Structure formats: C-alpha cells, structure tokens
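FAQ: What does the model actually see?

It sees only this:
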Amino acid sequence: MTFDEFQCVVVGSEPAGLWLLPGLKKVFDEFEGGSRLAHVPLSTETPRCAVPAIVAKHFNLNVSAEWSPELICPGKTFRWDSRALNGLPPVAHEASIDTLLNPGKADLQSIQRALVQDPKWLGYASGLHQFLGRSQSLSAEMLVHFSRYYSQLHWWEPLQELTGVGVESFPQISAHSSLEGFQAKKGGLAIRFEGVGEIVSRRWVFNLSFRGLQDLCRKCPEFLRILNVPSISVFLGALYPLRLRVQNTAVPCPVAPLNLIFDTDVVPEMGTEIWPFTLTRNPSESEITLWVSGPGLTNLETVLEGFRAGMGRLNKLFPFLGSSVLETSSPLDMSTCFGEAERAGVLADLERRSFEVYRKTAFHTATRSPFVSILMPDFGCHLPHPVGGLQAARLLIAAWTPKKKKTSVPAERGLSSPPF
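And it is asked to produce this:
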C-alpha cells in the first residue's frame, strides 16, 4: 500500500518533534493553502517532561500548575523553591529566556563565590540536573546556574500539542517495527515500513533516541549512513525507570511531584548517591517511578541492582510501601527462573523507556539527504531538557517558512529624481 505525499512526517515522540508539528501546520496553511502532516509515534505512550517556568512561557507550552521539587537529605528535607535559593544570585522567571541560556559573567562569578562558601550547592544542582538534563558534562557554575530555574517547574505533556491540530497518525508502526527501505520520489523521499508499506513525504524529521533509531533501522543500516548520526559512543549513560503501581496508603503524607533522595549531605556522587523519583496521585491508586542511573550499553544486572538499592531507600522513606505495591514494571531480580527471551524482553523495554544521557551536544539537524532532518535528544543537551530540541524545532520552522516577497511601490506622477 502506498500513501499519497505528505508535506512533513515526524517519526518518533521526543518532545521537540511533537511541538514542531503545530508550527508547521500554521506555516503550510498560510503559504500553501493547506497542510497534510503525519506522525509516526512508534510507542503507545509519550512521557511527560518537567520544564522550567521560563521555558514554558517562551515556547508557549500547554503545561500543568507550577510546583517545586523536594530534596531529601540525611540532615534535612526541603522544597527547592525561592527560600531554598537564599545565598545564590536571584533570577527572574518572567524574564527573557536569554537569561537562562547565556548567564552573564558577573552572575557566574557570584555563583563561584557561593560555591566556595558552601559546596553543597553543587550537590543539590547535580541531583536536579541528573533528572532534568541530558548531559552531565557541565561546569559547576553552569550546573548551579540552571538549578536556580528548577525551583519553578511544570509538567508538560508533549502529545497534547497535537490535540485538534489534524495531524494524521500511523499507530500501526510500533516500536517493534522496522524501516525496510527508501528511495527518492516525487521531489521527496519514500520510506517503506514493516507491515505498512510506502509513505511519501517532502520532508522527514526523525525525532527519537539513538537506541530507538538504531532499532528502527536494524534491517536498513544504509539509512543510518544517510542520517550521519554519531556512534553509540556518544552515550555517557542513561536513566532507567522502575514503575510502581501502589495503593494510596503507601504514601500517606504530602509528597512533591519530583523528589530526590541524597545519600550524603556533602557533594554526592552522581549515579550512585542520588535517587530521583516521581509521584503521580490518582483517586484510587498512585504511581511511583524510581529513576536509576546505568551504563549507556545496558547491563541488565547492573540496572536491576540499582533498582534494588533504590527500593531500599524508598522502603525506608515510606514504611507502608512494601505491603501496598500492586504491580512493578519489571522484576527486581532475574538471576534464576528466567529464560533468555524473558531477559531480552525486559532489557528492551527498559531501553525504550530510558532517558539517554550524552557526552557531546549536537548543533545540526541537517543530514546527507535534503529531504531528511534529525531532531534527537542530544541537540543542545548541555541545556535543560528539552530546550535544545525546541530551539532546533523553531529553526526548522523558520527555514521552511517561505520568504514573503517585498512589493514595490510605484513612484508618484509629477515627481522626479533629485539632480544629485
């Protein structure tokens, strides 16, 4: 089966690509008299993002109510809000986003002096950026700078950006499907997907993680060469989720949407002494998601060992948790009674749900094909996620917006040019 030509197809459900589609619709409706856009989700669920208030305002995101994360340390527990930031240079959350992206020299020097007086600022900032960023290759001053904007956060559901937009979807192309072939066609590119057939589009945007892209192209590795993506060595690691569906009695006290457990009051080691978890409350039950750091090349036993260590900390924090768990997203131990197929299935599911962390940041969306762009999580990953991707999406919209021709104004009769 062959689908007629689209103006743009976004493959994958990273936040930036979902935000891109409504913007493209406005452009094509205005300049081309209509639009035909498509989304290939590859997954039945799209994770929500915690974004700073200044980011939500700048990109006009549809977000939830504002909240602040909670930090749980051996010596104290406190909300990371404006009162907790006393001692750091203040920030204006309603100011231009340039204050977040490009801090001034005087601001960074003030942060440096604060770090000399109290190194704990670096530990708090590292823990927050471990969950809210996608790269840890940042200076201490920049980590603390970004952390000041993490005191006012919102949940953002990127998939809601497509509500009522009129974008076609291909849910039959799942995370287990593969890209089987491609060819230039009709001023665009035709791509053939397993079980669906050929889709033709003038523009393609691949908007998924490195692992997701490699898995999608497993039967067509030559397409990866066209995309010109770096090797998997760009991975520094990943955050892996353990979801717990629990009775509401498991967490009887008020708890923030995002919490970080610190093993030490001094500067903790990232990956082994910081334990982020999120809480979603529903009328009948709640969901706790524990996030554990692990290697980029996934070792199942290492991740499960992290889950067990994290669960120990959650059980200490919530004494009724053990008797209130209804379901877990993966086993905590697979050393016995599990076959290779079951282990491979759990590993694949963990990889699909993980947040990749990168060594290097990407700055270009172009590929070797004029019809294909990449919009992956490593774009601008030195910034709070997903600011870099949203910036790249805005640049794509600008690049694909036709330039309006200037209309010439005829000279009035009876007027002549001056003699000089």
